[in-house]
């Protein structure tokens, strides 16, 4: 019996490329494709594929919502995410839902296909780029409430003295919080700190 797959992505070029690449794997059969999240859910219910390869950002229902629905309507289906730029927090939610694989679209298609073959054999495969994002999110979640307050004020351009006045703490304490932020987020400059904070959704611009 072949390993059956559903492939879902709202970009036709990506969908076609993924479908062709997976169809060329010996023992794999793409039984359905979908351009929206709603269509992916319907196709999964109709075909009950062994593996569903899903984008995160799809109209109708996003990849996270599709994974939740598939756990209800096709629980035997292994879900695999192939994403361009995941929003902060989503990766951990997907992991908690039992997603068996996560890859980035920019990866070599052969690497993605090899990973999906491993998943079909019962393994869980997380691409190194995705694992790094998961580790980064863990670090961001470890920030204290006070550190987040200091970070917000740094983003507003306040000096250590200005932050100290705003929070009624000493400049030395501000410097300690700033050093802790740098250490936890693994950055070495204010510019890197702010870029990382925006990327992880810790501050808005």
Automatic annotation (TrEMBL):
GO molecular function, one term: DNA binding
Classification via SMART domains: HTH_LUXR, REC
Domain of life per record: Bacteria
Annotated keywords: DNA-binding, Phosphoprotein, Transcription, Transcription regulation
Record's keyword annotation contains Magnesium: no
Modified residues (4-aspartylphosphate): 55
A Pfam family: GerE
Domain Response regulatory: 4-120
Chain ranges of the HTH luxR-type domain: 136-201
CDD domains: LuxR_C_like, REC_NarL-like
Any GO BP: regulation of DNA-templated transcription
PANTHER family attached to this UniProt entry: NITRATE_NITRITE RESPONSE REGULATOR PROTEIN NARP, TWO-COMPONENT RESPONSE REGULATOR
Name recorded for this polypeptide: LuxR family two component transcriptional regulator
Gene source species: Primorskyibacter sedentarius
């Amino acid at each position: 019996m072949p390993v059956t797959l559903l492939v879902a992505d709202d970009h036709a070029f990506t969908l076609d490329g993924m479908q062709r690449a997976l169809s060329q794997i010996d023992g794999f059969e793409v039984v359905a494709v979908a351009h929206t999240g709603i269509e992916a859910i319907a196709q999964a219910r109709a075909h009950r594929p062994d593996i569903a390869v899903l984008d995160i950002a799809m109209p109708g229902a996003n990849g996270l919502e599709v994974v939740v629905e598939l756990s209800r309507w096709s629980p035997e289906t292994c879900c695999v995410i192939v994403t361009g730029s995941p929003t902060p927090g989503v990766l951990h939610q997907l992991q908690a839902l039992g997603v068996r694989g996560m890859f980035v679209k920019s990866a070599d298609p052969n690497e993605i296909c090899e990973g999906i073959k491993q998943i079909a054999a019962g393994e869980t495969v997380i691409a190194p780029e995705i694992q790094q994002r998961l580790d980064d999110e863990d670090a961001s979640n470890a920030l204290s409430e006070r550190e987040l307050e200091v970070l917000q004020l740094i983003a507003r351009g306040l000096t250590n003295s200005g932050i100290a006045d705003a929070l009624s703490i000493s400049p030395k304490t501000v410097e300690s919080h700033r050093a802790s932020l740098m250490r936890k987020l693994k950055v070495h400059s204010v510019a890197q700190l702010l870029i990382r904070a925006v990327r992880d959704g810790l501050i808005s611009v």
